[in-house]
Amino acid sequence: MTFSFSRALEILKTGSGRVARQGWNGKGMWLELQVPNDHSKMTLPYIYMNTADKHQVPWLASQTDLLAEDWEIVSNG
Fold it and tell me: Cβ distance 38 to 26 under 8 Å?
């Protein structure tokens, strides 16, 4: 089942899972919300991406990502 980015964002905000787009070319790419703790350098929550080569980087949505309807929940591990 696929859905819009607004649903994907709700999933991230509630901690219900990781999300990804079917249209992404890289295997193993997904997004997750990071909520900072006392040991974090960041002070506000942010979305990060697990890249195809297993790096984790801050993520910023493109207009294509925002308007896509091919978002899906992916495994948490």
Answer: no
